[in-house]
Each structure stands twice: as structure tokens, then as C-alpha cells.
Design a protein that fits this description.
Blueprint: H1 2-8, H2 18-21, E1 25-29, E2 41-44, E3 49-51, H3 62-85
Length: 86
């Protein structure tokens, strides 16, 4: 699957593979522009959408930017959990 993502050029090409990469995540929100490389949010199977902060881009190697996506996922969920405790 990873080979297919790299060969297809990453970005939106990873969408069919998101469930294999991250549990509970069905897609990434790249915004409304068809050629956008900006990653705005992660989307779950139940329709939940969690923003991933600013300046997250699907640029460079797939492994590199998916690693940044994973880091942003953790950071965003930790911030939401902290906010929920207040």
C-alpha cells in the first residue's frame, strides 16, 4: 500500500489508505481546492472532524509528511483533552 501512495504522488492519493495507516481515521481534509497540499483536519468514520493546526503540508516524501500528520494528530487531541478538563 505504501508503494502505491508513493507511486501515485502522495497528497490526496493516500485517502483510500488512511484506515490502514491510522485507526479510526477515514480521511484527511485537504480543503476545497483540488490541488491543495494543505492538510486541514482528520476525519473519522462517525463524521467527527478535528483540525490539525496550521502549516501542515503534504510535501516531500509520504513517510515524512505522514509522520508530521501523526504528530499533529497527537498534539491536537492532547489540546482538546486539556480543554475538556477545564
Amino acid at each position: 500500500d505504501k508503494y502505491c501512495m508513493v507511486r501515485e504522488g502522495g497528497g490526496r492519493a493516500v485517502q483510500p489508505h488512511m484506515q490502514n495507516c491510522f485507526d479510526g481515521i477515514v480521511s484527511l481534509d485537504f480543503g476545497s481546492q483540488a490541488r491543495s497540499i494543505d492538510i486541514l483536519a482528520m476525519c473519522g468514520a462517525d463524521g467527527e472532524r478535528v483540525g490539525l493546526g496550521r502549516n501542515l503540508k503534504a510535501r516531500g516524501s509520504v513517510e515524512s509528511w505522514l509522520s508530521m500528520v501523526e504528530h499533529s494528530m497527537r498534539t491536537s487531541l492532547q489540546a482538546l483533552a486539556r480543554k475538556g478538563w477545564k
